[in-house]
Amino acid sequence: MTFVVRCASVSLAFFFLAYCALSVTVARGWRAVRRVAAGLPARHVADLLFVLRLFPLASAALVTLAFVLPSFLLLEPRRSAERIGEVPFVLSVACLLWLGFGVWRAGQAYARTEKTVAGWMEQSTAGPACERVPVFRIRPSVPALTVAGMWSPKMLLSEAAASVLGVRELHTALRHELAHVRRWDNLKKLIFRLCAFPGMLGLESAWGDAEEMAADDAAVTSVSDALDLASALIKLSRLAPLHPSAALTTALLNNSTASVNMRVARLVAWDETQAREGRPHIFSWYAKAAVVGTTLSLLITYGAALRDLHALTELLVRQ
Known about the structure:
The structure is a single chain. It is built from 11 helices and 5 strands. By secondary structure, it is an alpha+beta fold. The protein has one domain (about 1-315). The two termini are about 20 Å apart. The model has no long low-confidence stretch (mean pLDDT about 85).
């Protein structure tokens, strides 16, 4: 039993240290990465920011499961009188508390969203589906148009929004929300709440703005579509004051006037080159080459890496 406790404590402590160190690095450096990626289409910028946000969690988990845990199981004696130091014990407890806090935050956000959406859906009526995604007319004027749900998403359209939008404006707005469904944006928001860390709100906000622009690009195929979507944004922003949406929903209008104004200006100046994918960006080739090279080097040096990490964890155990 002592071996199991030591193994769990060391693994959790290493994971927590690695996650915190990488999170601090990302929180301090994501703006520089976004500046470098400024010329990419909005969809790629959103994907890059999402990867950056999950990089600390994924990397810490990968190193812990692929290296730290195997090194302890393979190289640590089963019968040892060595005791767990105070530092790894405290770090492992902190890791468990952090994991529990993340699950609690995600559960709270999910429960609040379900309750809010249930209130919106009272006396709702079903309308024509949009590419197999059900659309419901709701009585409250806010939200004007939003997507709720992760596994079985649905679009909620207020009666006021339906009455003020023209046919083309409404269709373009629905295509915008459909893009959020295809990109699983509500699920991504839930994942953010599972891996909370101080200083990440700016990155998450930038990701949200990039996702809105990516959905705009997905909904627009011509200058006419762009003007229709811009008109829809202006009309709906005048219809009701901007209102914070439920935590795990994606609304056509978010609670930032500056973001809406930026999107309208971008749509008015739209041309087909801004949404065009084009050839893969040179940075994507560098990233792929780096991943392949790192994977090959780790496979070649896996045994030595296990020994080195075991020596490192031994130092941690003695603290």
